[in-house]
Amino acid sequence: MTTSTVILIIVAVVLVLAIAVIAGVVLNRRRRISLSEQDDSTAPTEPVKGGSYRADGGISLSSGGTTTAAPPEHPAGERTEVEGQPGVGDDAAVPRDTERRGIVDVELPDGGGTTTAEPPAPEKPSAPEAAEKPSAPEAPEKPEAPVEPEVPAQERVEPVPEPIPAEPEAVEEIEEIEPTAGRLERLRGRLSRSRSTFGQGLLGLLGAGDLDEDSWEEIEDTLLLADLGAATTTEITERLRTEIASRGVRTPEQARALLREVLVDALGPDMERAVRALPHGDPADGGKPAVVLVVGVNGTGKTTTTGKLARVLVADGRTVLLGAADTFRAAAVEQLATWGSRVGAEVVRGKEGADPASVAFEAVSRGSDTAVDAVLVDTAGRLHTKTGLMDELGKVKRVVEKKAQVDEVLLVLDATTGQNGLIQARVFSEVVDVTGIVLTKLDGTAKGGIVFQVQRELGVPVKLVGLGEGPDDLAPFQPEAFVDALLD
Ligand SMILES: Nc1nc2c(ncn2[C@@H]2O[C@H](COP(=O)(O)OP(=O)(O)OP(=O)(O)O)[C@@H](O)[C@H]2O)c(=O)[nH]1
């Protein structure tokens, strides 16, 4: 082989190598999406921030009778992480060592129930001195004689031995209530933890420039950490990838607008979010009050939410009656009574340990008789894994339905509990048809993404969000305003 042949071969090899390197670089560049270059001429002119949406709407209320919303579909096929999760009754093998309430076995009244909430059955009718002491401040109580329901024959609701329509609590002056309009806007600062990790995290990644595989992985991680769940995360990431490429998104502003659009879409902006707490017709003219059941596990914020919702209704000029069907925790009844007295709402309560179904029934009866606009029934916290307690909840609803239509079943979920909230939601909705979700304590978590997951999982809209412990820290859930609060 001559020297010139060798040189030619070397040149050819070098050329081939050079071509290969150049091709590799070009291909790699193509896979990246660059947001750093401004291309004014071709860029679509997306709104820079927030769009035209204004979060000044109030909490919207509707009547259960007039809603046209189709019953939610439960997209079971799309469920994620269901493996090994408990459902109702799955605790059969769990040692039943948890305290159980006695469930009074009440017969359901006839559908046409001739009932009156008439008479506050005196608490201790047999104690002679009791007459003189209208309400002796809880002195060290004499051992309480078992309260036998004395049946004043006529007109009494058979299954309701114990609930006592409370004397309207000494109504202090009715408090001023924050307007319900623009609450999410007012409270948006409370979402700062979710905003800084989730919203700003995403914006930082999307706006940083070249989006390679590592960037997309980081985006996925951010979504997962914010509790959006695997299915929603994949869906959002895929959509962002496709749209960024197809729309020729180039600038951080365009990326932001796209992110907003994708997140809002994932929140189902068209879901019906009005709280069905308006009466059926005019209660003063034979109409029926709306009935709202508030359910959930312990400590999620049911009583607080019931109280806050009562304020929303009162602020809207409605009359409200509260049913304290949390007969398990005496403090909860007192707590609700305080909420009631602050807005001048009557509270129907039972004695500790009373059958919650009977208290709920009595509350609804009383509400009908006194022609209030809405009866809000606070139920006891219950572990979703305890069959007996879940059965009891089902019974509460069935008993109430003997008297009136239940318009809204609000499931209160604590946003800080993450995946567990989702499991609860699933089980509760098996037992009582949950019609709306209240996500509380969003002010204390960076995991605001649970909103996406819970809606997707249940097909039930988040209607309200709790953003603090203050009496008016309850806001309507508005997807656009929520996403804006995360991204701004
Ligand atoms: N930060 C914050 N705290 C809340 C919110 N909602 C409720 N809380 C607090 O959560 C705690 C529990 O609230 P409750 O209303 O008593 O909960 P519950 O579900 O009725 O409790 P049980 O009757 O024991 O099941 C209270 O300290 C409330 O002030 C919220 O949106 N944000």
- Please bin the fraction of helical residues: 25-40%
Please work out how many helical segments DSSP would assign: 13
Strand content: 5-15%
Report strand order across the widest sheet: 2-6-5-7-4-8-9-10-11
Weakly predicted, low-confidence segments: 29-55, 66-163, 165-171
Task: Give an account of the 3D structure.
A nine-stranded mixed sheet has the order 2-6-5-7-4-8-9-10-11, with helices on both faces. The protein has a two-stranded parallel ribbon with strand order 1-3. The chain is elongated. Among the domains are: 61-65 and 158-180 and 272-487, 3-Layer(aba) Sandwich (Rossmann fold), CATH 3.40.50.300; 185-266, Four Helix Bundle (Hemerythrin (Met), subunit A). The chain is 37% helix and 10% strand. The chain has 488 residues and is α/β, with parallel strands linked by helices. It contains 13 helices and eleven strands. 44% of the residues are buried. It has helices at residues 3-31, 183-186, 192-207, 213-225, 230-246, 252-266, 302-315, 330-343, 356-369, 387-401, 419-431, 450-458, 479-487, and strands spanning 61-63, 164-165, 275-278, 290-295, 320-325, 346-349, 374-379, 408-414, 436-440, 462-466, 474-476. Bound molecules: guanosine-5'-triphosphate. Residues 296, 298-304, 326, 329, 332, 381, 440-441, 443-444, 466-469, 473 line the site of guanosine-5'-triphosphate. Guanosine-5'-triphosphate binds next to helix 7.
Provide key terms for this protein.
binds guanosine-5'-triphosphate, 11 strands, 9-stranded mixed beta sheet, Rossmann fold, 13 helices, 10% strand, alpha/beta, two-stranded parallel ribbon, 488 residues, Four Helix Bundle (Hemerythrin (Met), subunit A)
